[in-house]
C-alpha cells in the first residue's frame, strides 16, 4: 500500500493532482472554503488558550492541493498577532503536490537558499514563512506546535488479519502462475502481529470475540505517539480529521 501510494517514481500521489472533479476523489477543503476557515478558528482558539505565544509552528500533514491552509490563512489574515506568530510547515511527500501548494499559498521564494536546507518561502496571503518537508521528523523542534491532519491517516498503509483454524493470520498478496494477484493467509505470525495484539488490548473483549477479520495501521499508531510526544515536549495541540467507523475496523480498503 505504501509503495502504491508513495513510490518516488510511480506512486499514486507523486506525479499528479488526484483531487477534484477531474481527479479521483474530492475532500472537504475542496468542497467549501468554510472548512479551512473553521479549522483556522480552531487553531486561533488554541493559540489563545496557549497564552498567545510570539512564535508557533503550524504543521499540516498531507496538505493535498494546499486549499485548507490557503483558506485558513486568508480567513485569519485580519488577526495579525496570530498570523505574525506563525511559521508554517507543510509535510508532503509528493513533489507535484508541493508545487501546487506553493501556488495555492501564493508563495514567493526567499533568495539565498543554500543547498541542503529545506526550501523556505513567504506566503503573501498573510505574510507568513512556509517550509516544506517530506517527513514530520524534519520539522524543527523547540516551538509550540499546532498540527493539522485532514485525510492523512487514511493514506497510511494497513495490515489485515483473518481468524482461521490457526488463529489470527495476516492477509497477504501472492502472485499466481498467470501473474495475477490474489489474497493468501500467512502460514505463521508476521511482524504486524505485535500491533494486532496492541489493537485488541484497546478494544472491548466482547467486540473482539465476535470478529473474524480486523485491520490495523501500525504507522498511524506510531504517528500518534510521535505527535503526542512532540506536543508533550514543545506544547500545542493536534486536530486529526478522518472519516469512517468509530470502532474496530475490519476492512477499509477501497
Ligand atoms: N489534506 C488534503 C489531502 C488529503 S490526501 C485534503 O484534505 O484535501 C493525502 C495527502 O497526504 C496527499 O497530499 C499526499 O500526497 C500526502 N501523503 C500521503 N502519504 C504521505 C506520506 N507518507 N508522507 C507525506 N505525505 C503523504
UniProtKB/TrEMBL annotation:
Q: Which domain of life is it from?
A: Eukaryota
Its localization reads: Mitochondrion
Coiled-coil annotated spans: none
Q: What class does this enzyme belong to in the EC scheme?
A: transferase
One Pfam family cited in the UniProt record for this chain: Methyltransf_28
Gene3D superfamilies attached to this UniProt entry: 3.40.50.12710
Its Gene Ontology molecular function terms? protein-arginine omega-N symmetric methyltransferase activity
Biological process annotations from GO: methylation; mitochondrial respiratory chain complex I assembly
Cellular component, GO, one term: mitochondrion
Q: Which UniProt keywords apply?
A: Methyltransferase, Mitochondrion, Transferase
EC no. given is 2.1.1.320
Name the principal localization, coarsely classed.
Answer: mitochondrion
The UniProt entry, under InterPro entries, shows:
NDUFAF7, NDUFAF7_sf, SAM-dependent_MTases_sf
SUPFAM superfamilies reported in the protein's UniProt record: S-adenosyl-L-methionine-dependent methyltransferases (SSF53335)
Q: Which reaction does it catalyse?
A: L-arginyl-[protein] + 2 S-adenosyl-L-methionine = N(omega),N(omega)'-dimethyl-L-arginyl-[protein] + 2 S-adenosyl-L-homocysteine + 2 H(+)
Function recorded in the entry: Arginine methyltransferase involved in the assembly or stability of mitochondrial NADH:ubiquinone oxidoreductase complex (complex I).
Report the family membership. Belongs to the NDUFAF7 family.
Q: What is this protein called?
A: Protein arginine methyltransferase NDUFAF7
Q: Which organism is it from?
A: Gossypium laxum
